[in-house]
């Protein structure tokens, strides 16, 4: 039954503000609101993992190829816009996103607001050097119950390491899990083991941990603001990143095409 009044029927339909692209529901919270929630709102008992993901161009490309990565994204607690191309496209489509919110920016803000005695972080680092430096930094912040682990090669396929890591997470009732390993390994591992994890926040911040430790240098601010941070990353790690940014990144155009095409049937129905 049509419940509308005559006055309502005569009005033009209200156009709803778009909230998602690429099939991803992006958060409209700014960085301050996100950090506040992560630091002041404990994960409710029984909820398990609250995974935060930061979508950059490479993530969008891999989401179209990797079902396990997409499954992790689909169950994420919050998704922010990380990459400049993703932000540009989101805004062109009318998303009310606050801007780029990257893992490299969030990590220092979160870790320096965590409270010793209340929060128990675990950091999975890419190298012994990063692990040692971050251990010193956390101790300087007053932590003593934190856990610092160095990931072995192909850690995501190492079942023994995975069992030991899950055990340490549970036994120590870890509240915040930071992975300093590249995507999609971090997100897939946390999603795969989410049923065994304690109630905690999870983050795949990649090189963000290395930047904070000073092991790797981040792009100057002017390059970040111009959306050209990738040039710095390629210049500093050409063997690892050149193919990602100059070859596989073109698949982002295909993702944009698919996203635009997916909207056409709905557009036609409203005409």
List the helices and strands and how they pair.
Blueprint: H1 6-10, E1 20-21, E2 24-25, H2 31-40, E3 49-55, H3 57-63, H4 67-74, E4 78-81, H5 84-92, H6 103-111, E5 121-125, H7 128-140, E6 147-150, H8 159-171, E7 176-179, H9 185-192, E8 200-204, H10 208-213, H11 221-225, H12 229-236, H13 238-246, H14 251-269
Parallel strand pairs: 3-4, 3-8, 5-6, 5-7, 7-8
Antiparallel strand pairs: 1-2
Task: Give a summary of the structure in a few sentences.
The protein contains 14 helices and eight strands. With 271 residues, the protein is of the alpha/beta class. Strand 5 (121-125), helix 7 (128-140) and strand 6 (147-150) form a beta-alpha-beta unit.
Protein model, in words:
Helix 4 (about 65-75) crosses helix 9 and helix 12 runs antiparallel to helix 13. With about 270 residues, this protein is an alpha/beta fold. The protein is about 50% helix and about 10% strand.
């Amino acid at each position: 039954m049509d419940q509308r009044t005559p006055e309502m029927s005569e009005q033009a339909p209200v156009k709803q503000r778009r909230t998602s692209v690429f099939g991803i529901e992006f958060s409209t919270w700014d960085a301050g609101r996100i950090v506040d929630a992560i630091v002041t709102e404990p994960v409710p008992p029984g909820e398990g993992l609250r995974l935060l993901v930061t979508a950059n161009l490479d993530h969008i490309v891999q989401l179209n190829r990797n079902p396990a990565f997409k499954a992790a994204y689909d169950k994420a607690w919050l998704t922010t816009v990380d990459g400049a191309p993703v932000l540009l496209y989101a805004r062109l489509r009318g998303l009310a996103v606050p801007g780029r919110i990257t893992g490299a920016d969030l990590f220092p803000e979160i870790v320096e607001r965590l409270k010793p005695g209340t929060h128990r972080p675990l950091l999975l680092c890419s190298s012994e050097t990063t692990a040692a430096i971050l251990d010193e930094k956390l101790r300087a912040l007053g932590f003593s119950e934190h856990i610092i682990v160095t990931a072995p090669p192909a850690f995501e396929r190492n079942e023994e390491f995975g069992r030991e890591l899950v055990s340490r997470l549970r036994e120590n009732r870890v509240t915040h899990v930071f992975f300093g390993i590249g995507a999609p390994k971090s997100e897939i591992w946390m999603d795969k083991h989410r049923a065994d994890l304690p109630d905690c926040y999870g983050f795949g911040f990649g090189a963000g941990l290395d930047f904070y430790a000073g092991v790797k240098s981040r792009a100057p601010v002017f390059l970040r603001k111009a959306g050209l941070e990738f040039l710095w990353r390629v210049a500093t790690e050409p063997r690892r990143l050149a193919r990602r940014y100059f070859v596989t990144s073109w698949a982002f155009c295909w993702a944009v095409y698919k996203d635009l095409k997916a909207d056409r049937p709905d557009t036609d129905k409203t005409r």
